Fold:
Amino acid sequence: MTTAVPTGEHITAMHMSDGLVNAPTAAAFGLVAVGALVLAARRARRDLDDRTAPMAGLVTAFVFAVQMINFPILPGASGHLLGGALVAILVGPWVGTLCIAIVLVVQALLFADGGLTALGTNITNMAVVGVFVGYGVAVALRRVARRSRAGLLATAFVAALLNTVVAALAFVVEYAIGGAGGASLGTVLVLMVGLHALIGIGEGVITAATVGAVASVRPDLVHLLRGAGAEPAGAPARTEGSPA
Amino acid sequence: MTRPARPTRDRRATGFFVGFLVVALLIAGGLSYFASSDPDGLDSVTLEGCSVVETDAGEQLEGTCIARNAEDHALGSGPLADYAVDGADGTVGPAGVIGVLVTALLAGGLFWLLRGRGTPPDRDGTSGS
Structure:
């Protein structure tokens, strides 16, 4: 028995296809994803204004673009940006969750990349787990990030590395709950973590470079550098949010 | 629309946003031709245990692996499926450009609608057109 391989000419499918987990598991994570997106849409409102809304739209388009760029990690294996830490640092976790979810929906509907019934698991892994892990690490290191440019780049790198590995672990959890079979859980765990530790290095480099570039031109558009405990240096008076 | 209150700032903001979009378009439209076509991390794991065999019907999987359970994409025959325009070789760039523009419009529009009345207090409030 053989099965057709769904691969594209230049770019292979990048996200979970349909059928990798059973229907109840797919449905359950579909509900998780919908709940997370409803919550995110409500909480995102306060992070969105006339300036951050267009920024968030462009960040979303940028993640779509960079996700197309698979980079080699091992002979015969590649990786690509997931973008969780990137969006969390630039536009915050709630808006960021929506950014990644929009990318995944566009990819699934327009580009047949990522299954339709797998949207729930893909959104859970990359838009929810990846974004919030990246955000949590970045916030934990916020003092480092604000101290110097090197600190900001290091924060972005570490947050992105961890967002990649934990998002991969989320797939392992889904496979443990309702995987369709074909490989043992131990094999899946070891391979997913190992490969995504390597991919995470690339994710870290891309995230640090992007955050660094935005911060050097428009530090006021970097969410992590705003917020609690207003930044004294990096933000001139034009920065929003500072109580008048 | 915009009163001449902060022309420099507005122009600077617009310049940054235009630049950001151009970078995304260049990545999706140009750099995408140099992307690796090897399976990514997840696909490598789901293909573990199988070998890919070329047959008359295209590439087929042999062996035992997770990917044997993968179903064909329901929209796999769409006009932009697999990042190609109508399945044509060498069209990953145009497909990527379309994807960036669609994503920017969709996300930008959604976020614009979602934004609260929270216009920054230092703005003069006319930018909503």
User: Anything to note?
Assistant: Chain A is about 65% helix and 5% strand.
